[in-house]
Amino acid sequence: MFFKMLKKDLKCKKGLNVILFIFITVASVLVFAGSVEIYSYLTGEKRMTKLCNISSADMMVMGSVAEDEEKTKKLEQILNDYKDVEKYYSCDMTRINSLRMDYPNIQEDESNSFFRKQTYLMKLPREYDLLYDTNDMPFSLKSGTIACPVGFSTSIGLRIGDKVRFTTSMGDIYELEVARFFKESGFTARNRIIVADEDYDTLTKDEVRKMKDYGLFIRDCNSVKVDEIFTNLKAEEIICPIYMKNDFSDDSFIMQAIVSVFVVIISAFLIAIIFMTIRFTMIADLKREEKEIGMMKALGVDSFSFRWLFAAKYIAFAVIGGTIGIAAGIPISGLVVNLFNANVILPQKYETIIIGIIAVLAIIAMMIGFSLMVMRRISKISVIDSIHGENCGERFGKGFPLFLHKRKKMSVPFFLAITDILGRFKRYIFLIIAYTLGAAIILLAYNVRNSIISKNYMKLFLYHTIDFDVRLRGDFEKEVDKRCEAEGKNIHAVINELFEENGFPAYIDTLNCSWGSLLNEKGDKVKNFDIIWGENIDKLRYRNGGRMPELENEAAMSYFTASKLGIKLGDVVTVDISEESEDGLSTDNVKRQLVITAFFDYFEAGSPEIIMGKDYRKGQEIYPKDWIGYVIDAPESQKEGIVKAMKKRFGGDAIRSWQESLKEDQMAEYDRLFALLEYVLGGAVMFVLILITYLYSTVFVTEETSEIALLKSTGFTDGSIRKWHLLRMAVLVVFSVVLAEVLFKTLGQLLMTKFMESYEVTGVNFLPEITVSFIIIPLIVLGAVLLTVALTLKSIRNIGIWKISEE
Predict the structure, then answer these.
(1) Where is the ABC3 transporter permease C-terminal domain (predicted)?
(2) Cα 378 from chain centroid (whole Å)
(3) 610 and 482 in one domain?
(4) N or C: which end of the chain has fewer CB within 10 A?
(5) Do residue 349 and residue 424 come from a single domain?
(6) Cα dihedral angle (582, 586, 590, 594), rounded to 10 degrees?
(7) Side-chain half-sphere of 787: how many Cα atoms within 13 Å?
């Protein structure tokens, strides 16, 4: 009986069955891939650390120190004596000029951000920061071959087998073949090019930037401990930059987390759509089979048995679609993870299979359970219903109080659409939910990219204004360097003078940079802070409720760490700051009591900041001046023209618009990721909305066959009836899009805020682009829905008065 019912269901409404099967299969694949992506994200740090033996911090020792046996002993003695350094390893490494690597598919240009990243030649690591290839396997290299980070394939189009030419500092040229791409496990701020052991000495024999790279394994690594090691080395006149690597609050980790969140959202959306579709089609089937069900119940057939029979199609679809989802999910899950984060080592194959199968089986169980739950409607069908029909008195019921004779300016199709929606609103609730969620997801995907690749997002890095960007390139760099040397001025002052001399109303704002430590009541260091001060702090953005610090003993603090430490406005904190002595000839560590007058939003990533009062002038400038503003002092309408004129005078490589700076340089990698997410996610959601529109529209035409036939018999044309259906769907879409805009603005903003706060970032707000968010996206959704409905309405021409079976 089960298979007879299944065969009958499959023959009936083949188009709807195909759509439902596609839904369930796609959902199974997506749930499989999504569960693996989320598991990979949650366990990626631990797995990479274990497999690759990733060190806590990276210390680069210049060759002059590394070759000094006495200094090397002192350095290693300091590391051995520091109680929290559990172990350390070292390897040889040579820094080279990126432009001396000639890649086949790109023109070497120092204006390209890729070639400004520090590049190092080194042997294959064997003790720490181990490397795995794109198949998640260890590898080796033959003489004459190299291995490059997997990011090279996307950023410069490098491929396996390509020939790369390396020019030594003495002018010798070596041709090297790309044999492997590897997933970067070490410090991602640099490019590591791995060469064969036997080639390393030959390629680097004439290089002067040789160094030792130390991987430090520090217990509970934090900035305070790294700072203590640096201070101890500095006391022995050993200056070695140390970088923490166990801080996963950087941009790349956040971007991967955003992708994982979107995977969860789209999975939940598709599952909700499937459940709504199952309910809708099941209820339609039950109405069609109502008389048969009533007669069978009159004969004493148990209702629960009937549930299984009527759920046959959905059970079969769930099992078959789930099986396909498992088979397809195994390879697709790896592609999805690597697509959005190429440096992550995938879980073991058995882990992938187990996690995916559990997720898909859970979805199958939910579908079957939901189908049986919907079948409870069978219990309400009686013998009387089978004779008279469930809604025997419906035509005499009270309709929605809207009368056509009182709406003389309203067309009949529009009147029918409105009265149909308002009179049978419950019928369209699930369709409204589907359109609302779909439009909200598209808005969310687009506006994440628009909000992060923006001037406003850059304020989180203490840029108060970005009207343009300056880079020292070509003739402009030579001109600036020449004047700096001749006049004894710093770079930003010379650049500002050049702008002024050439009649450009543009200038660069800067702040002074140092460092300090927050102390507790016992005088112990609690947290390291970057200290900034200068005349331009009034241009920075502070959180509401505070005021800019004015006096020497006032300060503002980045909000995330302040809230984490329980610091409030008006609190007094003790900070240890490195300051110049009175005679300006030496430096001292000074303990200062500071009153916190304001907080500011900042992308901390483990490095919070303190802004000193405007009167403060005593700090020691340890870091180069921080450029916080690229200002064009002119009306907004004139800025684009001024940037073009500056390009003409100083060169297009030296002067760039803010859009070029963010999308092609500072945020280029993430712009590509968000663009991919935007198109893939938006396309997937639109595809789902088109399918569900086709399904609902087809069922509507089937259910309303009698009404359509009656209208045609009274003189209504096919065009008028089509207009009725199109207007009805248009009203539903417009209403849903309005709800989606509200949902995006409220729940979407709350989600974004809470998500970014979990990564030490506050003050991130959506910046919807008015034209796209309120015009283009709604029109795309509306157009896709109406086009789909128009195609399904072709069957109306075959409906005649003979279709009315009962009256």
Answers:
(1) 265-379, 680-800
(2) 46
(3) yes
(4) C
(5) no
(6) 60
(7) 11
- Calpha distance 167→165 (Å, rounded): 7
CA distance 575 to 123: 43
Pair (289, 342) in one structural domain: yes
H helix or E strand, kind and range, residue 271: helix 251-288
Please write the tens of the pLDDT for every residue from 441-491.
Answer: 888 888 887 877 788 888 888 888 999 988 887 788 888 888 888 888 888
Measured distance between the N- and C-terminal CA atoms of the chain, rounded to whole angstroms: 33
Query: Are 625 and 677 in the same domain?
Result: no
Can you give the residue range of the structural domain that contains 221? 57-245
Residue ending a domain, choose from 659, 684, 719 = 659
Indicate the burial class of 683 (C-beta count within 10 angstroms; 0-12, 13-18, 19 or more): exposed
Half-sphere exposure of 3 (CA within 13 A, CB side): 0
Contact by Cβ (8 Å): 19, 695:
yes
CA nearest to 41, candidates 330, 336, 329, 244:
336
Closest alpha carbon to 619 in 498, 537, 522: 537
For the full predicted model, state whether its pTM sits above 0.70. no
Which pLDDT tens digit goes with each residue over 483-530?
Answer: 888 888 888 889 999 999 999 999 999 988 888 889 888 888 888 888
Contact 148, 121 (CB under 8 A): no
Query: Looking at this protein, which amino acid is placed at residue 198?
Result: E
Instruction: Give dist(CA 315, CA 365) in Å, integer.
Output: 9
For residues 632 and 768, membership in a common domain is answered with no
Domain stops at, among 659, 677, 701:
659
Q: What is the CA radius of gyration of the chain?
A: 33
Question: Both 508 and 413 in a single domain?
Answer: no
Name residues whose C-beta falls within 8 Å of residue 760's C-beta, 6 or more positions apart in sequence: 249, 560, 561, 603, 604, 605, 606
238 with 251, same domain: the answer is: no
Please say whether the beta carbons of 474 and 654 come within 8 A.
Answer: yes
Length of the chain in terms of residues written: 807
Structural domain total, the chain = 4
Tokens 């609103």 map to which residue? 425
Residues 49 and 62 in one domain: no
Q: What angle do CA 178, 183, 188 make, to 5 degrees?
A: 105
User: Has residue 588 got a pLDDT over 90?
Assistant: no
